[in-house]
Amino acid sequence: MQVVHILRDKGRDVVTIAPEATMAEAARLLAGKRIGAVIVCDRSGMLAGILSERDIVRALSLANAEALAHEVSEYMTRGVATCCEADSVDDLMEQMTRGRFRHVPVVENGQLAGIISIGDVVKTRIAETVREAQSLREYIATG
Length: 143
What we know:
Layout: H1 3-10, E1 16-17, H2 23-33, E2 37-41, E3 47-52, H3 53-63, H4 72-75, H5 89-99, E4 103-108, E5 111-117, H6 118-142
Parallel strand pairs: 1-2
Antiparallel strand pairs: 2-3, 4-5
Helix pairs in contact: 5-6
């Protein structure tokens, strides 16, 4: 299965924030949308970074509550691992496990095309396993 199949099921909506936004605005956005990470896009709409709950915790540990007044660009992860629609879900799962991150932006032709979370990957793998088990049951029952 490929990343494009996950996007087809979950949609391509991506929550973004500007690098100049405050960490407090980012925290409110994450809480309000009930998500674990937000994509940081520059003025031209290009991927500039990602800010996760983990980045907010790190900011608070470094600067206490004062971090909430700082800009997102101070604490965002800049070297963002991305994937493309043609990537396999297995490869993506391996990349996420090895890199120890839970969100991967999908980029096609230089444009943000979606975001995949570890939850999306797990949901897809479970559905695949259930389908395979059902197919095997049907094969055995008719054989």
